[in-house]
Amino acid sequence: MRADRLVATLLVLQARGRVTAAELAEELEVSERTARRDLEGLSMAGVPVYSRRGRGGGWQLIGGARTDLSGLTGTEARALFLLAGPSAAVSPDAKSALRKLVQALPETFREEARAAASAVVIDPATWGRDAPTPPPHFEKLQRAVVEGVQVVIGYTDRSRAETERTVHPLGLVAKGNTWYLVTDTDAGLRTFRLGRIRSVAFTDQPVVRPLGFDLAVTWREVVAQMEERRPQAWATVWLATRDAGALRGQFGRDFEMGRELGDGRVQVRVCAPSMARLAEQLAGWGNHLEVVEPDELRGELARLGAELVATYRAAATC
């Protein structure tokens, strides 16, 4: 992945002082175009990498032929590790490289780099289907996580009650098209949806991180708890084998491929939080699929169909 290569590129620059795009491409076993794009990406991210044209030219880090990366500012270090640090986006080798790179940073930047490298988790097992888009307060909360500062958030809960809470921000997680803030509070670890956060105010109090806290591990525990509490309605349906991929795309991980029926159709199972929600998701398929079970879902689809007929019968006769 690109994050792996960005870290590897920096380590190569640190070891060699100056390299050409061709040399870097050979070292990392990528195309010269890819190597040049990664070098330019680092430069655009604020890392002090620059190129020199002509004989003896190439790319190098500001600070000399062999640098300990002391040319990086605190902001640049955070930018680098936020770029390469999300735990779900890098391999174990890249994590090892990040640890080595942290040791190459000046002491004053190491804590912020470590915080930035673990500030965000991208969870690939989505509850939704769209790529996550950071909500309005994302940058403030990311800064609070990296800098380790408590914040006061204005929050609207499920019942639409608005409250203010002082929290210790520990990390940000993207799950499908939804962002979550993982925090510590007086009542213990809590997770807040960023879409429900109405305001963010910084305090002058430092974050106190729980002993041994790991964002990725904590998020896996949160997901397990939420899955246990999540109501689920399953259904068995038959549809043309050629349409199974589209249905899988609609339901994501809530889709299970079953057996071939031998007539060009396949049996699959799909799931939703409730029978009503499942009926709404399947209604758009019309007669392109057949619900085999449960009868409750068949009845729910019949109810939806009757409502649609009653609503649009007059328009159909015009």
- Assess the beta-strand content as a share of residues: 25-35%
Outline type: extended
Counting helices, strands and paired strands, the structural category is alpha+beta
What string gives the helices and strands in order? HEHHEEHHHEHEEEEEHEHEEHEH
Largest sheet: 6 strands, mixed
Question: How far is it from the N-terminal to the C-terminal residue, by CA?
Answer: 57 Å
Domain tally:
3
Overall helicity: 40-55%
Q: Which architecture of the largest domain does the CATH hierarchy give at level 2?
A: Orthogonal Bundle
Query: What is the C-level CATH assignment of the largest domain?
Result: Mainly Alpha
**Number of helical runs?**
11
- Give the C-alpha Rg: 26 Å
CATH fold descriptor of the largest domain: Arc Repressor Mutant, subunit A
Q: Please give the number of β-strands.
A: 13
- Average pLDDT, rounded to a whole number, is 78
pLDDT under 50 segments (min length 5)? 86-90
